[in-house]
Structures are given as structure tokens and as C-alpha cells.
Amino acid sequence: MEHRPSFFKKADIFLAIALLLLGFGTLALLKSGQKDGSFARVTVDGTLYGTYRLDEDRTVGIETPYGRNVLRVEGGKAFMQEADCPNHDCVEKGAVSKTGQIILCLPHKLAVTIVNEGEEAPDAISY
Q1: Where are the domains of the chain?
Q2: Are 105 and 69 in contact (CB under 8 A)?
């Protein structure tokens, strides 16, 4: 009878489990730091366009020199309902409601940032 070495050793399995736990722990820690936002702050080309309360349902048409977007605020969340940009990434982003979350429409130079009262939107975020 021939003895074949195991492809995975016990240490490999232990390392894989430890890395998975570390990844999920980091994700939980990042999610716990986010809190519900109060406002959706819209900027176009770095200039404030408007600030809208998340607890008031509304539809906002955003006309810019770069194009048109429709922001919908509903149920404490904000999402881009329509956009006439070619890629529609902003529409596909979905709803945001936690502080620091952002919807970007790069062709229209538009950003929707979720903030709380008295908070400033971040100047820059790196991922």
C-alpha cells in the first residue's frame, strides 16, 4: 500500500480559517462604525447643489451643465432613480443611508454624500 502525502496540512487549514475570521471581523468592525445619516448632501463639480433630509420623502431633479440626474429620497435612504449618463453606475449603486456613503456620477461631476447634522462631507476618500 502506497502512502500519499496530504495536499493540505493541518497548519494550512488553520491558516485559512484564521484569515477568514480576520476578514469577517474586520468587515464587522468597519460596518459597526457607520451610523444612520440625516441628510443627503449633493455637490456638482465640488460646489454644493443642495442638502436634503433623509426623513422626508422627495424626488429631486438635478440639472447640471453636464447632464440630468434624478435623486430619490425615500424611507430614510437616498438613491439615484435616473441619469442620462452613458454608464449608469450611479443608478446601479443602489440606496445609501449610512454616514460617509457616497453615490458618484463621474460623467456629471456629481456626488451625493450621506452626512449628519453639522457634519461636513469628506474632502477626499481613498479606497
Answers
A1: 39-115
A2: yes
**Cβ–Cβ contacts within 10 Å for residue 66, how many?**
16
Is the backbone of residue 106 left (phi > 0), alpha (psi -120 to 50) or beta?
alpha
Contact between 109 and 99 under an 8 Å Cβ cutoff? The reply is no
- C-alpha to C-alpha distances, 18 to 11, 23, 26, 41, 121, nearest whole angstrom: 10, 9, 12, 40, 36
What pTM value is reported for the model? 0.69
Structural contact between residues 37 and 61, judged by C-beta atoms closer than 8 angstroms: no
Query: Is 113 in contact with 40 (CB distance < 8 Å)?
Result: yes
In CATH terms, is domain 39-115 a member of 3.40.640.10?
no
C-alpha cell at 92: 446601479
Determine the Cα–Cα distance for residues 15 and 52; give it in Å rounded to an integer: 47
- For 45-56, write each residue's pLDDT tens digit: 999 999 999 999
